[in-house]
# Entry
Amino acid sequence: MKPLESPSDTFHAQRSVGEVRLTFGPQGVVHFREAGSTKLRLPKGAQQAILINTSGGLAGGDKQQVEIDVEEGASLALTSQAAERVYRSLGPAAQVTNRLKVAAGASLSWLPQETILYEGSSLSRRINVELEDGASFIGLESIIFGRAAMGEILNVCHLQDSWDVKRAGKLMHAERLKLGPHLPRGAASLGSAQAMATLICIAPDVEQRAKSLHPLLAEKDGFSCWNGKGVARLVDEDGYSLKKRLARAVAALSGGKPVPHIWAF
# Structure
């Protein structure tokens, strides 16, 4: 065996890679494949799927890819086993790619638990969603800056978060968020908030659903709804408070359906 010649060689050799592919139909699983550190579990009799990262978190250079295809007439809620932790990086960003497809008359709720950024962490994440006409989609991503229980104050991190949502092949929502190396703490940005979330709902009746969401929003939150799409931005002083509010917001936009039971409060 050739000896490792430098720290960069060691760094490259120790990265985790994981992949999940799932096709879900009205009767349940149609196709399922998992590889590496990323796993998926589907409770028997439930229209839910639970992502698990067996590597215990994401470090610089790790790669994770998830592909979900929900067939016509099916309904699926996907969440994660626990909060995803993004550790300090010695170089490259952790790479996460999520590709989601929802057929006409089907619905998908993408509801992973929060992502916690550690000091010096680096994450690049892409979410690509393809919806057919008549499909419904709820998407959530929440970020916590630092570990409050450890007294960690996040000073330096890198985050690139990209969403592309298409309906019937046409782009209907796109956004690019880039933070770092220092977090924006002005009054027009994060301020004193230690947690934030983006919640997207796309459905033919989203305007009606939004009526239940408005009373749940705080002064610093924002919500816009037009053309069959609703986008909410929420911020809070800590991740626990944000998570409780997100549970109520998701229920409002999903017609009263609760978040997956694996969410813990």
Notes: Residues 151 and 253 are 34 Å apart (CA to CA). The chain has a mean pLDDT of 91. The chain is about 10% helix and 45% strand.
